[in-house]
Amino acid sequence: xxxxxxITRDPIDESDLIQGRDLSSEAGAAITFSGIVRGTxxxxxxxxxxxxxxxxxxxxxxEKLFEAMETRWPxxxxxxxxxxxxxxxxxxSLWVEVIAGHRGEAFAACQWLIDEMKKKxxxxxxxxxxxxxxxxxSRSDPNPGSRPSRG
Amino acid sequence: xxxxxxITRDPIDESDLIQGRDLSSEAGAAITFSGIVRGTxxxxxxxxxxxxxxxxxxxxxxEKLFEAMETRWPxxxxxxxxxxxxxxxxxxSLWVEVIAGHRGEAFAACQWLIDEMKKKxxxxxxxxxxxxxxxxxSRSDPNPGSRPSRG
Amino acid sequence: MRIKVxxxxxxxxxxxxxxxxxxxxxxxxLGELVTQVxxxxxxxxxxxxxxxxxxxxxxxDRSYSLQPGDEVSLFPPxxxx
Amino acid sequence: MRIKVxxxxxxxxxxxxxxxxxxxxxxxxLGELVTQVxxxxxxxxxxxxxxxxxxxxxxxDRSYSLQPGDEVSLFPPxxxx
Lengths: 151, 151, 81, 81
Description:
CATH architecture of chain C: Roll
Low-confidence stretches of chain A: 139-145
Helix content of chain C: 10-25%
Distance between the termini of chain C: 37 Å
Helix content of chain A: 25-40%
CATH topology of chain C: Ubiquitin-like (UB roll)
Distance between the termini of chain A: 30 Å
CATH class of chain C: Alpha Beta
Order of helices and strands of chain A: EHEEEEHEEEHEH
Order of helices and strands of chain C: EHEHEEE
Low-confidence stretches of chain C: none
Largest interface: A-B, 31 and 31 residues
Structural class of chain A: alpha+beta
Number of domains of chain C: 1
Shape of chain C: globular
Largest sheet of chain A: 4 strands, mixed
Radius of gyration of chain A: 17 Å
Oligomer: heterotetramer
Strand content of chain C: 25-35%
Strand content of chain A: 35-45%
Number of helices of chain A: 4
Shape of chain A: elongated
Radius of gyration of chain C: 12 Å
Strand order of the largest sheet of chain C: 2-1-5-3-4
C-alpha cells in the first residue's frame, strides 16, 4: 500500500492533488473525503478554526492507523493531509484519498480511517470567533473559543 | 439540493470539477467517488470498456434516484458524470460528488446512490479486447466481449 | 396496434437487430408481447429470467397493459459505473 | 526522577502553563503522576474523566510504570478532521 501523510499549515490544493494521482491498472475505485470548516460551531458563527496538533504523536498515530488499515483491506494507496493553524470557513482542514480495486473496500477503509482518527490522533479545534464577538467578550473571558465543543 | 447530471462521451476532468466546486458555509463534508476502468475483465486483459446507455431512460432513472436521495438525507449538492463510449484503462467512467453538512450522511448517500444506479440505470459495459486478441478471435466469434460480465 | 421494441447491449446481438415492431391487441399485457419477441428471436428465450423490461423511461412488469404509442425496451442486467 | 509533562489544547489554559516538571520515584505509576499534576493544577481535576494520557507517542493507561526520560502529555478528547 502506498502511503502519503502530510501535516501542514499550507492550504490544501485538492485540484493539484487529483492531478498528482498515481493509479495502477488494477485500481477501480478512488474515493476522496474533504472535511470542510463550517461557518458555525455550537450554533455560533465563526470565522474559521485554528487547529492545534501534538505533531510527532499525530504522525505516529496516523501511521499506526495506516498499518491497521492495510491488514484489514486490500488498499492500493492512501493519501492524507491535515492542516494545522488557522483554517477559514469553507476551506478543507482534512483531505483523504483511498484507492482500491473495488469500491466496497475503498469506502469501508476510508470511513474507518476517519472514524479512528477522530478518536486517536491528537489534533484539537479552536474556533476563531468573529472580530466583533472577540471585542465584546474580551473583558469577561480571556480565552474564548478554546473550550470543549461538539466537533 | 443542487443537482448536476452529465452523460457524455468526453473525458472526465476531475481536477476541473473540483475547481468548480460550490460550497455553502454549512458544508462540512465533500465526498467524491471515481469509478475507474480496470485493466482486466473476467481475468482477461482489456484495453478499456465501451459504455452503452439507453440515454433518455438513464437520465430519468438518475433523476429519480436523486429525488429519493433528497428525501432520505440532508444533502447540499450532488454532481454525477457518467461517460459513454470507449473509456480506456485507468480513466474514470463515473464521477460522483456528494456535499453535505456532515460526513455520515454524505458517505451513506453516496454509497446508496452508486449501489442503486448499478441496479436501475440502463448502462452496459462492452470490454475492449486488445488488438492481438481481437484478431485471434475474429473468425470464431463475431462479437467478442459483449456477453455478460461480472461488472 | 403496433408496438416498437428496442434491444440494448448483447440482446441486440442475440436478436440480430436493434428494433422490431410487433402487433398486439389494444391493452395486451407486456408479458404477452415479450413472449412474442422470444418466439421470434429464440436466443432471447434463454435470457428470460435476466430480462429487464421498460416502457418509455420506466421499468414495468409483465402485467402492465400496453397502450398505443408505448415504446418497449428489452435489455440484460445493467452495469453502469 | 524528574518527569516532564506537556499540556495541549484547553488543558494548557486550565493549567496556566504549557509544561511542568514533577518529581516521582523510579517506576512510579502514571496514575500517581497524574494525581500530582491535578493537585498542583486543581482546574484539571474536574477534567479527570475526559483526560487522555500519552507517554512519548503512545497512549498509556494509569497503570503504566514511568521510566527515566519518559515525556508525558495530557490533553482533552481529540477533535481532528
